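target protein:
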Amino acid sequence: MQDASAPCEWKTLYEAAVLECDLAKLRQRIVGAQKVVTKRIQCLDGTVSEAGQRALLDAHNVLCDLFKMAGLSTLESVQPQKSEE
């Protein structure tokens, strides 16, 4: 099984969003990370460990909370759903 917590695109973008101090760049970072995390969650197919799946869902939730805490306008992102294949 792959581990979704291994260094990869979603984690890099997630970390950039969480660590961003410039409010002018924060929205862009959150939206970019959220899109990649959501896409990865939707593509889960059993090759990702349970811990990896939890890491993705936690990242999704943190990004949503960060968006709200920063007082930004609505985050336009689909809610993560696993594909049923």
Q: What stands out?
A: The chain has one domain: 9-69.
